[in-house]
Amino acid sequence: MDKDSQQKPLPEKVVRRHAELLEEILPGFSTLVIDEGRPADLLLQSFLRSRRELGSRDRRFLAQAVFSYFRWYGWTVHKIGLNPSEACLLGNALESTALSQSFHYLEKRLNLPFPVECMGGLTPEQKCERLNALLADLEDFQPLELNDLVLPEFGSVVDPQKAEACIRSFQQRPPAWIRTRSDAETITTALAEKGVSSGMHDKVEAAVSVDPGISLQHLLGDYSGQFVVQDLASQCVGLIADPKEGSDWWDCCAGAGGKSLHLADLMRDGKILSTDVRIPALKELKKRARKYGIRGIRTQPFNATTDEPFTKLFDGVLVDAPCSGWGTWNRNPDARWRSSRRDVIQCATRQLKILNNVKWCVKPGGLLIYAVCTFTRPETEEVVMNFLDQHDDFKPEPFLNPLTGEQTDGQLQIWPWECPGDGMFITRLRRAE
Ligand SMILES: C[S@@+](CC[C@H](N)C(=O)[O-])C[C@H]1O[C@@H](n2cnc3c(N)ncnc32)[C@H](O)[C@@H]1O
């Protein structure tokens, strides 16, 4: 049941407004996301900026509705052929245990040719079976399959043993993760005092999970320097890099610095050069480092595919490479309709290019860490295999899986359901002395 349905009844004009808002935005959003590849969250942000009169309840309703629309789009629009408002209603029913007042109103306005059942408690397979039974009598109906929830080419670049489990995990929003910078208990206690339940990870000491959609910055304002919002799989990258105290690292695709900040916290007194092609992201990184009182991070624009590598050598180089991002589809349900096998292949080419370019900056005996938030074979094991084929001075170095404590052979695929959270592939390579 969503938050609206737990609160006091909404006035009729609000539920009508919700239905009208969906009718207004969904057709345009569909075109922009599906045909032009624009991210749904940015479209929504921009729409909400243009409609300042909408309150937090309306915003929450729209965000939830838009994301559930894209999450089930493969069945509701592609396969069943519903119009956007109908598809949004069915998408919401598929992930709720009861329709909110606004969706109830929408249901009455629409005239779906089958009964709308709430299936929030069912597994994706059970939902599939139930919908197939409900829709069986519709003219020209083709039975739904789990595979319809992603593009047909999905299976061509993913381990066939894992493909269905991946799709299943995309249909559910994972928790949000915090990396605590002091002790996890202080943060979980502070959250409990605000009535928010949270969980500590049993292996990754700093990691705390909370329900998605909670405004942590707002709730934990007094503790703002003591935690970083960072997905659990992303925290594993820093733990696997395991930088030594006082060492000197280069984070060559640093973005806004999630991993640079983690490396800095882990190494204490070390030095990090954080580079990226995006100058605004580096400015944000600087701002975040100041907020956390972290010194020792220097930023510099750098194009890791085309710029000459530095002459300086580092104890470690982290390549958190630009990738297809398929590992994040449970958080960004529209992203699966904006990416293709072609993107995966292009990303893999760029990833190998980056590794080949920056490897010269790893000291003899130093580390090269390669990470991507995806699980497609061309961007993970194949990139590493191609790199190792060309550079026999680098060898995979075994490490312990931070999530389980089990030994790996130097590379780890974290699947989205394992954290649960983002999927991430991480390799630790040691350069020969
Ligand atoms: C996965 S994101 C990095 C996320 C970041 N490390 C973090 O933990 O927050 C990949 C980054 O690579 C950057 N990038 C893309 N192409 C690049 C290039 N040719 N050279 C350097 N950085 C690049 C993107 O701007 C993006 O910030």
Structure characteristics:
binds S-adenosylmethionine; 12 strands; 15% strand; eight-stranded mixed β-sheet; disordered N terminus; 433 residues; alpha/beta; Alpha-Beta Plaits; four-stranded antiparallel β-sheet; 3 domains; Rossmann fold
What does this structure look like?
With 433 residues, the protein is an alpha/beta fold. Strand 2 and strand 3 form a beta hairpin. The termini are far apart. Strands 5, 6, 7, 8, 9, 10, 11 and 12 form an 8-stranded mixed beta sheet that branches. It has a 4-stranded antiparallel beta sheet with strand order 2-3-1-4, covered by helices on one side. It is built from 16 helices and 12 strands. Helix 2 crosses helix 4 and helix 4 (56-71) crosses helix 6. The chain folds into 3 domains: 3-149, no CATH class; 176-229, 2-Layer Sandwich (Alpha-Beta Plaits), CATH 3.30.70; 232-431, Vaccinia Virus protein VP39 (Rossmann fold), CATH 3.40.50.150. It binds S-adenosylmethionine (SAM). S-adenosylmethionine binds next to helix 13. InterPro entries: MeTrfase_RsmB-F_NOP2_cat, MeTrfase_RsmB-F_NOP2_dom, RCMT, SAM-dependent_MTases_sf. Keywords: Methyltransferase, RNA-binding, S-adenosyl-L-methionine, Transferase.
Short description:
The chain is α/β, with parallel strands linked by helices. The chain folds into 3 domains: 3-149, no CATH class; 176-229, Sun protein, domain 3 (Alpha-Beta Plaits, 2-Layer Sandwich); 232-431, Vaccinia Virus protein VP39 (Rossmann fold), CATH 3.40.50.150.
